[in-house]
Amino acid sequence: MNQRKLSVKHPNLHTENKNKQIYFLCAMPRSGNTLFASLINQNSNIVVTANSITLEIMKELFLLKQDDTFKNFPDEQSLNNVMDEVYNLYYKHWNHKVIIDRGPVCTPGNLMVMQKHFKQPIRCVVLVRDVLDVLASYIKWFENEPTAFPNKFKTIDEKISKIMHKNGAMAKELMSIQYLLQHPEMAVFIKYDDLVTQPEKELRKVYTFLNLPYYPHTFTNLNQLVVNGVQYNDGIVGKNMHTIRTEKVMKVENEYRSKIPKKFIKAYGHITF
User: Fold this and answer.
1) Which of 24, 47, 124, 205 has its CA 20 to 30 A from that of 54?
2) Can you give the residue range of the structural domain that contains 236?
3) pTM value?
4) 124: β partners
C-alpha cells in the first residue's frame, strides 16, 4: 500500500492581512472623535474603531518581560513573535481594507514598543482642539449629566483636575501631539473647529494623507457610531459621552468657557491649535 504524505498548510497571518492597512487615530478628548468616526465609517472600506485595547495588549505583553516566569526562561523571540502579530490577529476577522485604530500610540513609551513590533509605517490622524474649549465641553457634559462622573469628584475644580492629571487621557494625547508636531511625515492634523465647519475639506485631507480614493460622504442625517455591530456602553464611562448630533455637522457655540475656573485658564489657556 502506497502511503502519501499529507501536506499541511499553516495559515500565514501576514498573507491573510496583506491587503489590510492599519493607521491610528490620536485625538484629544472632546475633539470630535466620535463624529469623525461616524463620518468616515460611511465608507464601507474603512473603519475607525472606538477606543481600542490593542495598544494595551501590546503593553501588557511587553511588561511580561519583567515577570519572574519569563526571566526564569527568557524566550524573547517567542514573545516577540506574539507581539508582532497583535494587530494582525485582533483585526483578522474585520471585513475592512483600512482600519484606523484609536489610541495614544505616539507617547514616547508607546512608540518604543510600536516601532519595534508594528510592521507598517506609523501614520496618524490627529484631532486637536484648544484646551479651554475641551474643558468647556467637559463642563457642559458635567452639568447635563451630573451623575456621569465618579461621585468622589464633586466640584468642577476637582473634576477638571482629574481630567488634566499627568497620568490622564489629556496628558497622554498632548504628549503624542507634541511628538507628532515634530514628525509631520507621520501625521495629518484636523482641528475640531475646521471639522465641524468644513467637514468635506478636512476629510479630503485625511484621504490624501493616507493615499486613499475619496468617498462622497454625507454631512446630514448622521448615524450614531456603531463598529461591527457594537456600540459604546456609556453606562460604563459616562452617560452620553459618545453621542453625536445627527441632524447635520455644525458648529455649536459653547457658552461654558465662562465657567472654567481662572487657575485652569492661566495654566492651559496658551495651549491652542
Assistant:
1) 205
2) 18-268
3) 0.86
4) 24, 187
